[in-house]
Design brief:
The structure holds two protein chains of two kinds. Chain A contains six helices and 13 strands. By secondary structure, chain A is α/β, with parallel strands linked by helices. The radius of gyration of chain A is 33 Å and the shape is elongated. Classes of the chains: A alpha/beta, B alpha/beta.
Chain lengths: 341, 310
């Protein structure tokens, strides 16, 4: 190494040393980066932070003999329940001797024609208004001893278009079943029921427990209702648990969700019949009791309400029983005059 | 060399002593400037913008920035400048955890612009203070699922759920788990401030401006400058520099959402290609304020999470 290089090295070395020592003298010092600490997101790790998938168990059974009973299942008014999804219920009825028919909605025959050959009728859903002639026919049907289970579901909402929250209102009236339930002294609430505290993994999956003493809730401890509505009137057999709130009013009260008046049972939820919800909690026990109720009627005359012929629209077709039959206000004294088809 | 001065210099440079003295003199002169340069980085309050729909990509960039700030000793406090309706649920959760780590070590304050809603509010809650303007919207604590509209993809799979679906019960349980974590975190972070019950939080209620302060969702009315001042005061620094960071580059991550704004009438549309999985349609979980295109507002209820008038 040349002496010039040595001198240059000495110069640079001393310079660097001077800068570092001087800087330290001024108090500049680096620290190592802190280690990653625990985020301490305790809400992620609490005992109940992970929701469990609910148990689905039990079997749908009936205790009543359904031999010779004709049960009509009508899903044409439902936006979610289909003949396929109520297969367990249909199979149980069939296994116990009943003849199961699905409603021939849209086939040209009115509901009265269907009911005149039936002993029991299950109407699921309320996506559109029921014609007046069908309402009168149903009333004549129950007056004659036919059994009806009416399962409502909340109305589908409006579809929101891009650009705003204003959407088109759902087709039909806000409460399509109102004209029908009024005839039985019943009414369904608007909106839907929810429970923020006591629910089955979602605020709209509310629990309901038996109220009073009814064969409809025998063996039932608790059921799960998916998107249900309250039912007013009649003899309440099932009420939503404490804390249940109605969406439209945001009021937390005691809401009956299953009620009976004579030969008609009104349920505020159609999902309990659906295989997706059938085996949750004691739903299958409740549905079994409803099937027993359906096949326990004694209809007389057997062809009530008589055939309405074709169409099923009020005031149309021959032999329409949409006028002058049945009764108003839930009275079950009037017997309709059967009309030969 | 016939110049005498040159000769003296050349002779002097031959001497190690002279060289050392010159180096020391230069070093002594430079040292204060080095200290000044170092000290200029000593006290920083950094403002981090979170002003885009939260996607996995944007969240990852923000998390990296937050980590860098956490490990930088010259950063004495951080201000989050939030204006987002939220977005992806897991991305929002990741940002929450990252910001919570930061707030465990340094003062963190949030200034809300238009909205810190849903996942955006999730990111804000670890802050030591949340500032809102009278028009800022906060809240919407909740989760929603976006389910592919198409059915199962064709092809052979090794199991019933391999096609990207899950059972309805699992779907509900998954959303419920996220809800519990979200609501629980809000109660943990804001519980002492909240004047509304847990049920109200879980209802995904939103609050605006002064009502947000009344409800305990925010602490004070103010803007970013107020948040900077509060952060610096909390950090105990009076002389500081303010730096601005906008870590999430929207062009670098596939957007989950496009938003027409974050006011009460905003809508958001979910693009099909979420989280960079172009061509793959799958269940996604969102912490998002707004109404998705074609989403149904349940059962013509007039009070579906909208701003409440009182």
């Amino acid at each position: 190494m040349s002496s010039a290089a040595k001198r240059a090295g000495v110069f640079v070395g001393v310079l660097v040393l001077a800068v570092v020592v001087g800087s330290l003298a001024y108090g500049v010092g680096g620290q190592s980066a802190p280690a990653t600490n625990d985020a301490d997101a305790s809400a992620f790790n609490t005992g109940d932070s992970v929701a469990e998938v609910p148990d689905e168990s039990g079997e749908l059974t009936m205790s009543e003999d359904a031999e010779g009973q004709v049960v009509v299942i009508d899903t044409t008014y439902s936006s979610s329940v289909t003949p396929e999804t109520v297969t367990p219920m249909a199979n149980t009825l069939t296994e116990n001797g009943a003849e199961v028919r699905f409603s021939s909605g849209g086939s040209g025959f009115g509901l009265n024609s269907t009911l005149s050959e039936a002993d029991a009728y299950i109407l699921i859903g309320a996506s559109r208004t029921i014609p007046e002639s069908d309402i009168a026919g149903m009333q004549a049907f129950t007056d004659a001893g036919g059994r009806v289970v009416l399962l409502n579901e909340p109305q589908g909402g409006s579809t929101v278009s891009l650009g705003g929250l204003l959407g088109s209102a759902a087709a039909g009236s806000p409460n399509p079943l109102l004209p029908l339930t009024n005839e039985y002294g019943l009414s369904y609430d608007n909106g839907y029921l929810y429970n923020m505290g006591d629910n089955s993994n979602n605020y709209r999956n509310v629990y309901a427990t038996p109220s009073g003493d009814s064969s409809l809730t025998e063996g039932v401890d608790r059921v799960v209702l998916h998107e249900s509505v309250g039912v007013n009137g009649g003899q309440a057999a099932l009420t939503a648990t404490e804390g249940t709130t109605q969406s439209t009013t945001r009021r937390s009260e005691t809401y009956p969700v299953l009620t009976r008046t004579g030969n008609l049972v009104a349920v505020g939820d159609s999902s309990i019949m659906d295989q997706e919800w059938l085996y949750r909690a004691d739903n299958e026990v409740l549905v079994g009791n409803l099937l027993d109720f359906l096949v326990s009627g004694d209809k007389s005359p057997e062809d009530a309400p008589g055939s309405s012929g074709f169409g099923g629209r009020p005031g149309t077709g021959t032999g329409d029983t949409g006028t002058g039959t049945g009764s108003v206000g839930g009275s079950d004294e009037t017997t309709p005059t059967p009309i030969a088809p | 060399m016939d110049n005498q001065i040159d000769e003296y210099v050349a002779t002097a440079l031959q001497s190690y002593t002279v060289l050392a003295i010159v180096a020391l003199l230069i070093g002594a002169a430079v040292a204060p400037y080095a200290v000044a340069v170092a000290e200029s980085n000593q006290n920083h309050v950094v403002v981090v913008s979170i002003d885009e729909p939260i996607t996995e990509g944007s969240a990852e960039q923000t998390v990296q920035e937050i980590r860098a700030l956490r490990n930088n000793d010259s950063v004495k406090a951080v201000v989050l400048d939030i204006n987002t309706p939220g977005g992806s649920a897991p991305a929002s959760e990741s940002m929450y955890m990252s910001i919570k780590r930061l707030s465990n070590e340094k003062p963190v304050y949030t200034s809300v612009g238009g909205a810190a809603a849903s996942g955006g509010y999730y990111a804000a809650i670890p802050s030591d203070g949340i500032f809102v303007t009278p028009g800022s919207l906060v809240g919407s604590v909740g989760v929603r699922g976006a389910v592919p509209s198409s059915g199962l993809p064709s092809g052979v799979t090794t199991g019933p759920d391999k096609a990207g679906q899950m059972t309805q019960d699992e779907y509900y349980a998954a959303i419920e788990s996220m809800r519990r974590a979200f609501v629980g975190s809000v109660m943990q972070e804001r519980g002492d401030n909240l004047t509304v019950p847990r049920e109200t939080v879980a209802e995904a209620t939103v609050f605006v401006g002064g009502r947000a302060v009344e409800a305990g969702y925010a602490d004070e009315l103010g803007n970013t400058e107020d948040a900077i001042a509060a952060a610096a005061d909390d950090a105990g620094v009076s002389n500081y520099q303010v730096s601005y960071r906008d870590p999430a580059d929207p062009t670098q991550s596939l957007s989950l959402l496009t938003s027409n704004g974050t006011d009460a009438n905003s809508t958001a549309t979910a693009e099909e290609s979420a989280s960079g999985n172009s061509g793959v349609d799958r269940i996604r979980f969102l912490m998002l304020y707004g109404t998705l295109e074609n989403e149904q507002t349940p059962y013509n209820d007039t009070a579906q999470g909208g701003v409440r008038d009182e």
